[in-house]
Amino acid sequence: MKGMKRANTDISSFTPPNRPRITISIIAPNHALDQELITLDLPPGLSVGDLKGFVNAETHLPQAAQQFYLNNTPIAGDDKTLEEAGVKDGDMLAMLMRQPEQPNNMNAQRRQQRRPAGRSPHEIETSRLSILGNPAAMAQVREQRPALAEAINDTNWFKEVWEKMDREDAEREQERREQMALLNEDPFNVEAQRKIEEMIRQESVQENLQFAYEHNPEVFGRVTMLYIPVEVNRHPVKAFVDSGAQTTIMSPSCAETCGIMRLIDKRYSGIAKGVGTAQILGRVHAADIRIGNSTMSCSFTVMEGKDVDLLLGLDMLKRFQAVIDLRGGKLVFGDGGNEVQFLGEADIPKGFEEARGREDVVEGPNGTEIGVESGTVRQAGASSSSSAGQGSSVGGTTNGFRGPGQALGAASSSSKSGKAAVNGPTHAPTPASTQRASRSAPASAPTPAATSSTVYPKEAIDQLVSLGFARNQAIAALDACGGDVEYAAGLLFQS
């Protein structure tokens, strides 16, 4: 045993005292070893060519394709030692596996890649007839490729759509290949790396969207908002239940309809800031509200710019000890003695539907559009046609000015205390005044032709235009605000 211990001590004495250890990061696109790290203990005085042999022994990557980089600088010369190249113990090298160049065939290969690998006309027609004869396949095509389904009954049209889809797919694939080729040309090009990173991210996002579209289609459906029927000061109102709102909010038009406009305490007026801004006219400290079989005292913050008449916020929900029962579809108060069923989709106000028609959309899979705020999936072009029809209701523009200035005109007309002086109800019905508009004369919503730009002073229009808005937007805002320049400017900044 003692002899063995002495032998081990003698062997350890031959271990080189300064054996440099380096780490090599492999960059090999389309290779299994891409992004791998290897650590090597190297003897002193090793040349760059010998290092390539070590890497070849570890990874089987050909030595001729290896190019080493130290601090983003290529290491040239296989005869140079690692010490001469500046490689020290603990350094990390990048090793790029260069792709073999084929200059004679490169142009021909690129031209071939640009040609879509489409089917022959006979194969396309066979596919069309096969889809027509298979209801399940037809349903799938209608869902995933609506443009193709629309042309299914016309041979020539179907062929054109099919070939167009082939070309688009080929162009996308060619663009992806060209972007990836940048990595082979210069892996340390910052701009190339940024583009490739964005391309990979976009592919991941699209794959995630496609997965959700196929496996969780319900998340793209339209969610019915929670409304309950209530009575404020003996006037029926459909209240929107929103536990995410801090306070209970009422629109000026609803306050006027319920006869509590005179109770507004203007000392509580101001500007509400969140996603945009809104004008707070004041607060009604106490008014009777009947929910179910109970009558309670409730306070309301009267604020412009909302698409609902009445919004029950967290302050009143906590005060009344309300429980939102989504399983039972009802709002429960207290110990359960008072329950109110949520309104069905057919009974809720259409304010949110109109707002969704105006919301921004992003491109979805297979020619669809997805609402940015609501997440609703619809066919491309449906939102723009919807918003165009709705936006023309105010001043003949497609900007769709919503409640702020219009509700203010109604408030000023009834209270005689605002800055704007309007002659009668000149505002178009807004989502916040849906009920009142349904009970009033149809003449309360003027057509665009009924409003002339000559009724406003040129100075008023120029003042709004100088703020950066178009002339038609300025006129539409003045229409909505009864000619008041200050409120029109506030409306333009809020929209």
From TrEMBL:
The gene is DDI1_1. Its main location: cytoplasm. One of its GO terms (biological process) is proteolysis. It holds the Pfam family Asp_protease. CDD domains: RP_DDI (cd05479), UBA_scDdi1_like (cd14309), Ubl_Ddi1_like (cd01796). Residues 454-495 form the UBA domain. Residues 22-102 form the Ubiquitin-like domain. Residues 379-391, 407-421, 430-454 have a biased composition (Low complexity). SUPFAM superfamilies: Acid proteases (SSF50630), UBA-like (SSF46934), Ubiquitin-like (SSF54236). This is DNA damage-inducible protein 1. Binds ubiquitin and polyubiquitinated proteins. It is found in: Cytoplasm. The lineage of its organism: Eukaryota, Fungi, Dikarya, Ascomycota, Pezizomycotina. PROSITE patterns: UBA, UBIQUITIN_2. GO terms for cellular component: cytoplasm. Transmembrane segments: none annotated. Keywords: Aspartyl protease, Cytoplasm, Hydrolase, Protease. Belongs to the DDI1 family. GO terms for molecular function: aspartic-type endopeptidase activity. Residues 100-131, 354-454 are annotated as: Disordered. Probable aspartic protease. May be involved in the regulation of exocytosis. Acts as a linker between the 19S proteasome and polyubiquitinated proteins via UBA domain interactions with ubiquitin for their subsequent degradation. Required for S-phase checkpoint control.
